[in-house]
Amino acid sequence: MQSTPVFVYIFLYFVITLATCCREITFDHVKVTVKGAKDIKNITGCFQPSDHLLKVSYIQIINEQVPVLKKDAIHGLPNLMDIILEDNNMTDIEPGAFYNLTHLYLFKMRYNYIKTIRDGVFNGLPLKELCLTNNSIEIIHPNAFDNMPNLTILFLNENKITTLSNEWFKNTPKVVSLNLEKNYITTIPFRVFQNIRGEHLVSDVHIRTNIMLNDNVIRKIEDGAFNCLETLGWLFLHRNEIEDISAESLGSLKVIEWVRLDHNRLRCVPDRLVQISPKIVYYLHSNPLTDMCINKYNITKVR
């Protein structure tokens, strides 16, 4: 009886292992830059806890063809800290694409064509910084950013987002910077930031949360929009189409360090806004303010 060559067994072992750990092939001869592993320049299949990948701490894939990040795409790497995926013609991320990444700190995905952020993609990851800048994001599932206990910085700028949800960020208590600039948001709805804390204690230092909503098409701020927040660091609302801000829209806010409302359509602002953020009078230029408003708050250089 003729014996089977050893290399056949090796090949079959590789195929069986790949099939077991990668339910679908995400990467097909894709060029990759990694740290923590030698001589890995291409990847086929998925990133999984094999001997040659266990020490990988950094994965970067730029300007390749990765149309969909499928289930099991990157999983089980105990030393992985950073994932950078840019300009890969990506259109979707399946739930379960990432898991068992106990030290993951940064996920950066830019210049792709993702339209929807689904539930089950980022939930439960230990990420501190999530950058989704300059994709084509239109829809974010209400639970997409839930149960992310370490998330501190979230970039959603330069997408096609039109609406904000007050369901985002359940059990995600550490968000300090939320960047939504350069989207197509039209309204700031009631209690939209109810799951975000306005102030955090980090290494015995009080840090206030910054929210950037500038360069959208915001026309309406609903009454109670900022309920559940008492303090904020930056609130950037410049370069929108805001015609009116009511005292009621400020909700429970008591202090805002820096508000920008320049380049809107405001005729005046409520006394309460000036009380909780006195510097606002310097950031009202390029609004059609009335003479009464200008004189009342001693505003100069408004146009």
Automatic annotation (TrEMBL):
It comes from Phaedon cochleariae. The keyword Signal applies. Keywords: Leucine-rich repeat, Membrane, Repeat, Signal, Transmembrane, Transmembrane helix. It holds the Pfam family LRR_8. InterPro entries: Dev_Immune_Receptor, Leu-rich_rpt, Leu-rich_rpt_typical-subtyp, LRR_5, LRR_dom_sf. PANTHER family: FISH-LIPS, ISOFORM E, SLIT RELATED LEUCINE-RICH REPEAT NEURONAL PROTEIN. The chain crosses the membrane at residues 6-25. SMART domains: LRR_TYP. One of its GO terms (cellular component) is extracellular space. The lineage of its organism: Eukaryota, Metazoa, Ecdysozoa, Arthropoda, Hexapoda. The keyword S-adenosyl-L-methionine does not apply. SUPFAM superfamilies: L domain-like (SSF52058). This is Uncharacterized protein.
